[in-house]
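Can anyone check this?
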Amino acid sequence: MILADEVGLGKTYVALAVAISILDAVRRGEAPDGLPSNKPVVLVLTPANDALFNKWMREAEAFKTDCARQDGGLDWLQVRSPVDNSKSGNIIHLSAQIREATRSQPMLIIAKQSVLGAALHDRDLWRRRGLAALFGHFRIPTETRRYWCRRGRVFDTFGIPELNELLDLRSSGPLWDDLHFPDLQRAFFRVLQNHAKLADRAAAALTGTDEIALSGILDDLARFALVSDWPLLPLVIIDEIHGLKNEYVQSRRRFEALLKGKFCRLLGLSATPFQLRHDELLSILNLRHAMALPRERLDALGQAEAILGVAMKAARDSGETFRRRWKALRRVDQKAVSDTWNAVMGAEKSERPALADQVRPPRMAHAIVAALDLEQRNSELRRHLRPFVIRHQHPRGYREHFVDRKSTRLNSSHA
């Protein structure tokens, strides 16, 4: 679902209300069917823009105070971010925080989209863990292990002194000790078993000499292992979701790869969804495939999207026809077109096409028929958009009214 209210109508607060309502329902044991009932976490992903990230943090804290039914009524909610400043943090920080959520104290985590691909801290340690998992999974010979342990571009320390833990995996136990992630070794091996493409990439890299390629694979292996231990999230919110319209951009590819099957609902925020091309809007709606949904629900959404795609094409074609017919009109037709349009629109809806077709000269008839068709196509398009897009707009004259009222207050304060 995309919340597409105009700027200034409070999309952030609406999204926060949805998130906190879900978390409260889980906390009280009243979660809707299909939503997880344990370790409730709602994840908000913002663009890399510091101002937007900080705005979310401020408004989430303000929401706890301003929207509680009574003082302290929302103190159960933990509002967290992967780091304490406006940097993105990384998936290690994020995963550690998700593990801290409890049913009695659900968590709202606000992070930048870049958190999913940000560089890992203690990178040598995570890459050593990745190598230990690869060496064990693929039964890599000792000489090949020794080669990779001494590659300078794989490790920031240009070769590691603690080789025994990788040359003899029986001594690798301490490598997996981690207070935040006690099941880490199993998580790495599960990823290699369940993600065939990543495992194939790793196997091919180990037989080559490309240090940079293997380094990237080791980092991805760590990210997948960390995410594999996440609980199922009831909701993910993506601010400025139109930024993910291109399915090939790195931020979207990481989101779909790492979070696939890890969340139940998706809410996107965008004030400008209709500035997207039709194929771009449909591309954003395809993010539903990353959700953990029953097959029948996915199939129903797929059918609704297919119908929407047909309606979008029909509206686009009708709009192009109207553009051509309107351009064929002459300046002297202006008043006649206006009067005729009002007369046609005053008739019963079923009679309008026939009346429009009788208008003379023919160029006016063609323009009015095209306008009626465009109105019908747009009406159908709005109907098919409703399952996917919610949009509220300011009433006409809002901006003028706001500016006038603000101007009045300013003038009064200076009087």
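Reply from J.R.: I decoded it. The two ends are 49 Å apart (CA to CA).
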